[in-house]
Amino acid sequence: MKVLLGQIMYDKNLSVRQVSIMTGVSKSTINRIVNGQVSPTLDTVEQLAKGLHLKVTDLFESDIQ
Hints:
It is built from four helices and two strands; from the N terminus they run βααααβ. It has 65 residues and is mainly alpha-helical. The chain has one domain: Orthogonal Bundle (434 Repressor (Amino-terminal Domain)), CATH 1.10.260.40. The radius of gyration is 11 Å and the shape is globular.
């Protein structure tokens, strides 16, 4: 399951700093998620979704139809 945070940030023209301010998630954590170095915890996913005004499922790409 792929995290779409980088694509969402690109589509909304948002910087790591802006996303960090909007969501309360640290810039380093956002960078590590975008670069595929870590998988976000459920708490982090919920913070990101709430701050970006998205559904949790909007943050993921799944091969399941």
